[in-house]
């Protein structure tokens, strides 16, 4: 796994497993999906979490 990658550089690492360090900016949810948004000072990125892949406490 690579060292920390800034959000602004994520596109250079498609298909790789990377680590992003930052803070949780916002969370949206829709049905069985959750969309966490992360910031690190260089940009903003959104992820997708499927309800069945995490515990009920996390979702």
Strand share of the residues? Answer: 25-35%
* Largest beta-sheet characterization: 4 strands, antiparallel
Number of strands: 4
Low-pLDDT residue intervals, each spanning 5 or more residues: none
Terminal CA distance reads 27 Å
- Class by alpha and beta content: mainly beta
CATH superfamily: Nucleic acid-binding proteins
Average predicted confidence as pLDDT: 93
Give me the CATH architecture, please.
Answer: Beta Barrel
Give the overall form: globular
Radius of gyration: 13 Å
CATH-defined fold name:
OB fold (Dihydrolipoamide Acetyltransferase, E2P)
What does this structure look like?
The structure is a single chain. The protein is mostly beta strands. It has a single domain, classed as Beta Barrel (OB fold (Dihydrolipoamide Acetyltransferase, E2P)), CATH 2.40.50.140. Helix content is 0%, strand content 34%. Strands 1, 2, 3 and 4 form a four-stranded antiparallel β-sheet that branches. β2 and β3 form a beta hairpin. The radius of gyration is 13 Å and the shape is globular.
């Amino acid at each position: 796994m690579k060292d920390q990658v800034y959000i602004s550089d994520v596109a250079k690492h498609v298909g790789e497993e990377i680590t992003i360090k930052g803070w949780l900016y916002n969370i949206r949810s829709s049905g069985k999906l959750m969309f966490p948004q992360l910031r690190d000072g260089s940009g903003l990125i959104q992820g997708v979490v499927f309800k069945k892949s995490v515990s009920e406490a996390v979702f």
